[in-house]
Design goal:
By secondary structure, the protein is α+β, with helices and mostly antiparallel strands. The chain has helices at about 30-35, 85-90, 145-165, 180-190, 195-205, 210-230, 235-240, and strands at about 5-10, 20-25, 45-50, 90-105, 110-125, 130-135. The radius of gyration is 19 Å and the shape is globular. InterPro entries: Lon_prtase_N, Lon_prtase_N_sf, PUA-like_sf. Pfam families: LON_substr_bdg.
Length: about 250
C-alpha cells in the first residue's frame, strides 16, 4: 500500500482526476495552507487533497454574517467538522495540483488546481494550522469492456446534452471534440452531469473504469428521460446545486 501525507481541503463538491478546480481562498486555515504550498519550488507539484464533505460546513462561521449572521465564531482547522473529521468526510477523494496560487492584497488567494489521482482517506491530523491527511493512493483499473462502454456513454451523453440544451432553451455548440479514452470519458461525464454530491461521490469511488461507465450509462438514460418528460423545466432548476464558497 502506497501512502502519502498531504494538506486536506474539504469541499461541498467532488473533484475528479483531470478536472480543473478554481478556488477563492479566504479562511485563515486555508490561507495558511496556501502559504505553505507556496514554499514548494515552482518546478515541483504543489499538491493537496480534496475530499467531499459528508457532514459539516465548507465555510465555518468566523464572524457575524460570515456566512450566517446569527452564528457564533468557530475557529481552527476542525471548525465546522466536529470532533472526528474522518466521519465528516467521504473516504475517497482526489489529489489536486495547484498550477496557480496568487495572493491578493487582502491576504486571500486565487487558486487554480487540477485533479490528478484518486486517494482513500486513512486518517486526519488537526494539530497544525490546517488539516493534513494520511492517504492511500488508489489505482485506476480498467475493468471489463471499458472501451465499448465508453462508446455507449459518449452516445448517451450527447443525447443528454441535447435534451439539456433544449430544456434550457438554448442551442448546443456543435463540433466539440470529446475524448475516447475510457478513463478520461468516465471522469469527464461524471463531472459534467447535473448530479448531487452523493451521486458524484459514488462515481468517483467506483472500483474500476468499467463499473463507473456502467453506472453513468444508467444515470444518463434516467436523467435524459426525466428532462424529455419535463420540457418546460426552468434552466435554474436544472443547474441548481451546491455552490462552493471557496
Amino acid at each position: 500500500m502506497t501512502t502519502v501525507r498531504l494538506p486536506l481541503f474539504p469541499l461541498n463538491s467532488v473533484l475528479f482526476p483531470g478536472l480543473v478546480l478554481p478556488l477563492n481562498v479566504f479562511e485563515e486555515r486555508y490561507r495558511a495552507m496556501m502559504r505553505e504550498l507556496l514554499k514548494t519550488p515552482e518546478d515541483e507539484p504543489r499538491r493537496f487533497a480534496v475530499v467531499a464533505i459528508r457532514d459539516g460546513h465548507e465555510v465555518a462561521p468566523s464572524a457575524p454574517g460570515m456566512p450566517d449572521p446569527t452564528a457564533l465564531p468557530d475557529r481552527g482547522p476542525l471548525a465546522g467538522f466536529g470532533a472526528d473529521p474522518v466521519k465528516a468526510f467521504h473516504k475517497v477523494g482526489c489529489v489536486a495540483d495547484a498550477a496557480t496560487i496568487r495572493e491578493r492584497t487582502d491576504g486571500s488567494f486565487e487558486v487554480l488546481a487540477t485533479g490528478t489521482s484518486r486517494v482513500r482517506l486513512l486518517s486526519v491530523d488537526a494539530s497544525g494550522p490546517f488539516l493534513t491527511a494520511e492517504l492511500e493512493t488508489l489505482p485506476e483499473e480498467p475493468g471489463d469492456e471499458a472501451a465499448p462502454l465508453a462508446e455507449g456513454v459518449l452516445r448517451s451523453f450527447r443525447q443528454y446534452q441535447k435534451r439539456l440544451a433544449g430544456a434550457r432553451e438554448r442551442s448546443l455548440a456543435t463540433g466539440a471534440e470529446l475524448p475516447d479514452e475510457p478513463g478520461v470519458v468516465s471522469y469527464l461525464v461524471a463531472a459534467a452531469m447535473m448530479l448531487d454530491t452523493p451521486s458524484k461521490q459514488r462515481l468517483l469511488q467506483a472500483p474500476d473504469t468499467a463499473s463507473r461507465l456502467r453506472d453513468e450509462l444508467k444515470l444518463l438514460r434516467s436523467e435524459t428521460a426525466i428532462i424529455r418528460n419535463l420540457p418546460s423545466l426552468p434552466a435554474s432548476e436544472l443547474t441548481r446545486g451546491p455552490m462552493s464558497l471557496n
